[in-house]
Prior knowledge:
This protein is mostly helical. It has one domain: Orthogonal Bundle (Arc Repressor Mutant, subunit A), CATH 1.10.10. Strands 1-2 form a two-stranded antiparallel ribbon. α1 (3-9) packs antiparallel against α2 (16-25), α2 (16-25) packs parallel to α10 and α3 (27-41) runs antiparallel to α8. It has helices at 3-9, 16-25, 27-41, 45-56, 61-72, 80-92, 112-119, 121-140, 147-165, 171-190; strands at 96-102, 105-110. It starts with a helix and ends with a helix. The longest helix has 20 residues, at 121-140. The chain contains 10 helices and 2 strands.
Amino acid sequence: MTARTMAAACSTTMSSAVRARIMVTTAPAAARAAVAVRACSSRGALRIVMLHLLQEKPRHGYDMIKAIEQLVGGGYSPSPGVIYPTLTLLEEMGYASVQGEDGGKKLYTLSPEGQAHLEEKDNVAALQQVLRKFELRRQERPDADSPELQRAVQNFRMALHTRLAKGKLAREELHAIIDIIDRAAVAVERV
């Protein structure tokens, strides 16, 4: 879940000031997301990245989302609303095919036409450019890829999400959560 998505999900129980604090405390992730979005925003770049990932191995949509998130180095996770229509488009274009379905999940594979498209000179250059941007971003923030840090951030997000899903917070509970988040943000900044 991105910082923006998390803040939006919390909008029913959190004030705009709290959502803004969440956005500020997750600024490095937001910056990484911006790099990923810019890198994939050129015409067809996301399709090329997805074909590249299908070249590695067949994938379900969720696996594609996680692979792109890992490729970027965390902090950006493409939405299902982008990935699934793009997979359908790749299938309609003949670049990908559905190998089978497992429990309602389509397993996409790279077709021979998709392989040929991926090997075209312009597409090779476009893929290299996008992958280079992702690599530069990962090198700028090598600590952000720490498995321990990723686990800790995920634990925080899950704890917050789980607590908010239990229902409306009492004013005291909301203020206690806000105080905890604020203290944690200050402590992280001081390290």
